[in-house]
Amino acid sequence: MTNQPATHGGAGVESLAEVLRRFAEERDWQQFHTPKNLAMALSGEVGELLAELQWLTPDESARVMADPVAGARVRAEIGDVMIYLVRLADVLGIDLVQAATDKLADSARRYPVEQARGSAAKAVDA
Ligand SMILES: [Mg+2]
């Protein structure tokens, strides 16, 4: 962990979305940032993240950040995933944090603590 400040001009998804919007505008890349293209790019980056972990044992994957080289690659792919997820949500006009908060509330309803604690069973209505 470092204590370096965020370099995107402030904390939070909204400011990152603004930085990404400006980045695309400066390069005239909005034309390529269709929801379809961004969803495909997001999927590709998730694949790159998976590629960093796929042959590790569960224990190795849990310790991956202790390896500076592998950890840096995982960190970079997480960053790529975040970039495309935030950009896709921005282009679609979705409040990303609100969407996630809504989904979490739904999961809390479907998986009450007293029934779900310690269980990986899927909810009946899932
Ligand atoms: Mg990548």
Describe this structure in words.
The protein contains six helices and no strands. With 126 residues, it is an all-alpha fold. The chain has a domain at 36-112: MazG-like (Helix Hairpins), CATH 1.10.287.1080. The model has no long low-confidence stretch (mean pLDDT 92). It binds magnesium ion. Magnesium ion is lined by residues 45, 48, 77, 80. This is Nucleotide pyrophosphohydrolase.
Summarize the entry for a quick read:
The protein is 65% helix and 0% strand.
Distance between the termini: 37 Å
SS summary, helix count: 6
Structural class: mainly alpha
Average pLDDT, rounded to a whole number, is 92
Number of strands: 0
As a percent range, the share of helical residues equals: 55-70%
Q: Give the CATH H-level superfamily of the domain at 36-112.
A: MazG-like
CATH architecture level-2 label of the domain at 36-112: Orthogonal Bundle
Structure keywords:
Helix Hairpins; binds magnesium ion; 6 helices; 126 residues; dCTP_Pyrophosphatase; mainly alpha; DCTPP; 65% helix
Question: Which helices and strands appear, and what pairs or packs with what?
Answer:
Elements: H1 13-26, H2 35-53, H3 58-62, H4 68-92, H5 96-110, H6 113-116
The protein binds magnesium ion.
